[in-house]
Specification:
The chain is of the alpha+beta class and 87 residues long. The chain is built from two helices and three strands, in the order E-E-E-H-H. It folds into two domains: 49 residues, Rhinovirus 14, subunit 4 (Irregular); 32 residues. It is elongated. It starts with 9 loop residues before the first strand and ends with a helix.
């Protein structure tokens, strides 16, 4: 490593709005105030509702099922017309 090109890391105290405090290292020289931390964020606490992607896929399939059925019916009709034209 080259000397004197890397930043100095200092121990800083992080204060969250929920009251949680912890110490970490940072190039920032003073204390850090945050609004959300891992102790109060819904994703980390398990309070976040996960979106049901299976429901979205099912809704997509229902939406385009009519279109797919119409295309299949049109293909059958075309094939029937082609068979009768050959005879």
């Amino acid at each position: 490593m080259k000397p004197a090109i890397h930043p100095n890391y200092h121990e800083v105290r992080v204060h969250c709005a929920c009251g949680n405090n912890f110490v970490t290292r940072s190039t920032h020289k003073s204390d850090i105030s945050v609004e959300i931390c891992s102790a109060c964020h819904p994703f980390f606490t398990g309070k976040q509702k996960l979106l049901d992607t299976a429901g979205r896929v099912e809704r997509f399939r229902r939406k385009y099922a009519k279109s797919d059925a119409a295309k299949a019916e049109a293909a059958k009709t075309e094939a029937a017309k082609a068979d009768t034209a050959k005879k």
